């Protein structure tokens, strides 16, 4: 005979508490949560990819059919009305967005300009050119980001792909993307004068050059008027978060005026960092006037002997950041050194004018004005 078992509320509460401290149960819950979030991300990526594919094909059709020439200036307005009639549930069917679809196709179609265009599909087209990495990058970036990139880059595909790649690698929001584009990161990234190709292994020289900028934007330091090197370095360290952002991904702060005992002499590196991507120390000297780069080379050698672990760390890199440099003299100095060194300039004034709220209309504002104007014309 089966006996009925009665469990009290106290026993249930006790069992519930036991479940929550059971390691296997906690691990299972965490695993389920992780899988759920991953499925959400995969779904969002899939939706974005399909939407970009649709926009690509739409832009391709407008271009290949020479639609605006063929059907006149009112074509875009008619296309919007017809698409809205056929796809009432669809969002983003506006004249502004259609022009972006056209720009989207024209911009990235240049990646496969020598390919005979049959269907013009984005992924088929680019993968045929053996550049599937470009496909992955483009499809991983949201449409809103793409519109900002198109506004900045116009028909410069190389610049556009640079910002696409940076967005994917760093997980930039639209605001961060806009900030970096406004600071002309593309024109500055990897532009320092260096001797990396002659002093570093080929596999790391390109990556090392990419962590440099020229000029560096130190506007965040807030320095105006006269200043000395001490004031500049203190301002940089006081704004360490902004300083690390400007240096780029992978930099970890080690110390200011880092002491190195070289023989019987005490030496002090202005700023010492460690770059996690390159797995190496980076010694940075910040100077107002032109200085002999030989001192920096000595610091780099000393760090290699004193701090670097040959089994874990790559060769140390030195970077001289000064107010101005003589490019020819700097190049000669780099060629004379057997240490991996770079020379860049810095600017204390913003590299771009600050946006005054309300003076520059947003895309949404322009779109609303166009829609209102069209509505009035149709009445």
Structure explained in plain terms:
Helix 7 (132-140) packs across helix 9 and helix 8 packs parallel to helix 10 (174-182). The chain has helices spanning 9-21, 23-64, 67-71, 75-86, 95-109, 122-128, 132-140, 143-153, 157-170, 174-182, 185-188, 196-199, 202-210, 229-238, 240-247, 294-306, 327-335, 363-378; strands at residues 193-194, 216-217, 251-262, 265-275, 280-287, 317-322, 341-347. The protein is of the alpha/beta class and 379 residues long. The protein has 18 helices and seven strands. The chain is globular. Mean pLDDT is 81; it is low at 113-121, 123-132, 351-361 and 375-379. Helix 17 links the parallel strand 6 (317-322) and strand 7.
Give the topology:
Layout: H1 9-21, H2 23-64, H3 67-71, H4 75-86, H5 95-109, H6 122-128, H7 132-140, H8 143-153, H9 157-170, H10 174-182, H11 185-188, E1 193-194, H12 196-199, H13 202-210, E2 216-217, H14 229-238, H15 240-247, E3 251-262, E4 265-275, E5 280-287, H16 294-306, E6 317-322, H17 327-335, E7 341-347, H18 363-378
Parallel strand pairs: 2-7, 5-6, 6-7
Antiparallel strand pairs: 1-7, 3-4, 4-5
Helix pairs in contact: 2-5, 7-9, 8-9, 8-10
* Rounded mean pLDDT score: 81
- Overall structural class, as computed from helix and strand content, comes to alpha/beta
Taking the alpha carbons of the first and last residues, their distance comes to: 84 Å
DSSP helix count? 18
Largest sheet: 7 strands, mixed
Instruction: State the shape.
Output: globular
Order of helices and strands: HHHHHHHHHHHEHHEHHEEEHEHEH
What proportion strand? 5-15%
Tell how many strands the DSSP assignment holds.
7
